[in-house]
Input
Amino acid sequence: MANIKSAIKRIRQSEKRRVRNRAVRSRMRTYVKQANTAIVTGEEDAVEAVRAAISELDRAAKKGIIHSNNAARRKSRLMKKLNAAE
Output
């Protein structure tokens, strides 16, 4: 355990951020997984699922949880799959 006051505060801050980031990352992955499943199974609402996943990816990128290029790459791959399925 840290002895220095600023280090103790840093630990508290980083733990709060870790929990918040983990929740956003988990939510993002869930939406992407649902979109992929909808595309593969050929569901009617695949377009809506992809739209929701893209929104979550943008949100995660905006919050700095993933890099913006990472979000762009994932969105591109989702759209590519969706267009190939249609």
